[in-house]
Amino acid sequence: MPSPLGHALGGAAAAWLAGGRLREGLHAEAILFGTVAMLPDLDLMVGAHSTYTHSIGAVILAAGLALSLTRGRAPWLAVGVAAAWSSHILLDWLGSDTSPPIGIMALWPFTDAFYQSPAFLFDAISRRYWLPQEFIWGNLRAMVKEVLILAPVAWLAMRVAYRRRPQ
Ligand SMILES: [Zn+2]
User: Fold this and answer.
1) How many Å lie between the centroid of ligand 1 and the Cα of residue 165?
2) CA 71 to ligand 1 centroid distance, Å
3) In this structure, which residues have their CB less than 5 angstroms from ion ligand 1?
């Protein structure tokens, strides 16, 4: 599963492609939607990794929260939040997972089943800090691969968002 860096790039790209935006502009959007795309992994702190926060249910809740916080006045913000959160689910599904439970609970609340792509685009990120070879070099290699794949996508998405913006 991708690193926070990969998720941030994927989240900003997804939000831009979906039309998510802020009044403050592209940099603020990159920071906000990139951060939103990292949030699902906070479930590591409560020992429930790859479960509820990695699901369509969480996407709906996050978008609903964004709509609620803006009192419905910023639907494009909610679209960006939904796209950024969804990108996390997609990227994790496309990533190799070496820590049980394998895969993500993508379709909760409809099912508690875990899903993983049969072909991996991204390498697993190791949290085994006591294995320096794997933790440092393995993670560095995985992050370079993520940037090589996702940075061009994010750049193109940013160009699309910029052109779509009212002048
Ligand atoms: Zn994740």
Assistant:
1) 31
2) 29
3) 40-41, 92
Cβ atoms of residues 28 and 58 within 8 Å = no
Cβ atoms 102, 78 nearer than 8 A: no
**Amino acid in position 96:** S
Ligand 1 mean position, distance from CA 95 (Å): 10
The length of the chain, given as a count of residues: 167
Tell me: the pLDDT tens digits for 79-112? 999 999 999 999 999 999 888 889 999 999 999 9
Placement of tokens 């409560």 in the chain: 46
In the reported structure, the alpha carbon of residue 39 is separated from the centroid of ligand 1 by a whole-number distance in angstroms of: 8
Q: What are the beta bridge partners of residue 137?
A: none
Dist. CA 66 → ligand 1 center (Å): 20
Tokens 């926070």 -> residue? 4
CA-to-CA separations, 123 to 16, 92, 112, 143, 153, in angstroms, rounded: 25, 10, 24, 8, 18
